[in-house]
Structure formats: structure tokens, C-alpha cells
Write a structure and sequence with these properties.
Residues 131-159, 171-199 are annotated as: Disordered. By secondary structure, the protein is of the alpha+beta class. Helix content is 35%, strand content 29%.
């Protein structure tokens, strides 16, 4: 697994969907994950260290773990299946490590409160990660005997770059203040986090 940090929480201008962007430590590789508006707000509140009058859901979970002498060791994004991300809470209890199934958004909201590492399975990063520098570079040649890459690879690179450019153009930093759109309030929470809206 590779360790990541939360780079930013953003909102799409086209459909108001929230996205948390994870950045690999010591590398310029990013993993965007679509999340619900309430989870995005919970993550942002913790990142900005905003004090709230009463405990929110993720504060409650953190307090429960502490009350029962359990310790959150790390959170993980362990798999990507059918465009759905799967996560784990790794909790130490009575000297044993216990893995608890979790949506990545909830795991991240808890991780920023408990200040624990965030890990992503290498396979997930290879599948869904974005490396801007690599996508923007022209293919390298090592000498006269090197042949140009097949057309299919060129088309794939251009398509990946186009998707990434569209992704950046349709995003703005979301301060996730209390005045959320009515449209967001009417949306049900997704059962799982998905990298694509509507999944």
C-alpha cells in the first residue's frame, strides 16, 4: 500500500458533486474520489479545525473508540470494484488489529480527526490514480531502433489527458459553508463512494 494525504476537497461546477483528492506522499500522483456533500463537509471541518458546538457523527465515532479503549491505527482504501471504492478502518483493541468495513469518505473524515495515516492499495492507485506530469509528457525514445508507440496508446494518452483537463476545468475549491444548495440537501447519501457521479 502507499501512503497518501488529503490534498483538497472540491466541488464540480457541472453537477455540484463533491470530490476528495488524495495525493501520494513524495509523489505527484493523485486519487480523486466522489463523495457525498455531508461527508465532504465533515472532512473539511476537521481539516480546517473548525470547532462545533456538539459532536458530529465522526466525532461521536472517535469518542466511542476512545471510551472503549480502542485506538484507530490507520484507514485504508483497499479496493475499486465496478467504479466503487471500498475502505477499512484498522482499529487496535485488546492487543489485536481489527479491520472494519467503511466507505472511504467516512474513513477519511475519521482519519483527519484522529490524525492517523491514510493508505491506498497500490492496485487502486495504479487503476484510478492520475499523474499529471506523465500524462503531459511526450513519449520518450531511447535511440534509432526505437519504434513509435502504437496509435492506440497515443489515443489513450490523449483521452486520459482530456478527461483530466475537463476534471480541472469543472472544479472549484469548495468552502463547504453552512449555506449549502437546496439541491444538495435533497440528495440521498450514496451507499458507497464512487469515482463517477451517478454510480
Amino acid at each position: 500500500m502507499v501512503e497518501v494525504v488529503i490534498d483538497s476537497v472540491r466541488v464540480s461546477l457541472t453537477n455540484q458533486q463533491r470530490i476528495v483528492v488524495l495525493r501520494e506522499i513524495n509523489a505527484e500522483r493523485y486519487l480523486p474520489i466522489w463523495i457525498g456533500p455531508y461527508e465532504a463537509e465533515a472532512i473539511t471541518i476537521a481539516l480546517q479545525e473548525i470547532e462545533v458546538a456538539r459532536p458530529q457523527t465522526h466525532d461521536l465515532l472517535k469518542n466511542l473508540l476512545a471510551t472503549f479503549n480502542a485506538r484507530l491505527v490507520r484507514v485504508e482504501v483497499v479496493a475499486l470494484k465496478d467504479d466503487v471504492f471500498f475502505g477499512n478502518l484498522v482499529v487496535e483493541y485488546n492487543g489485536h488489529l481489527v479491520e472494519i468495513d467503511s466507505r472511504p469518505s467516512d474513513a477519511l473524515a475519521l482519519a483527519v480527526r484522529a490524525h492517523v495515516p491514510i493508505l491506498v492499495a497500490r492496485e487502486v492507485m495504479e487503476t484510478a490514480g492520475i499523474v499529471p506530469e506523465r500524462d503531459l509528457q511526450a513519449p520518450e525514445t531511447s535511440g534509432a531502433e526505437s519504434s513509435p508507440p502504437p496509435v492506440e496508446e497515443d489515443e489513450l494518452s490523449e483521452e486520459r489527458l482530456s478527461v483530466f483537463e475537463d476534471f480541472l476545468q469543472n472544479l472549484k475549491i469548495d468552502d463547504l459553508s453552512d449555506d449549502q444548495d437546496e439541491e444538495d440537501k435533497d440528495k440521498p447519501d450514496p451507499d458507497r463512494d464512487s469515482p463517477k457521479p451517478g454510480k
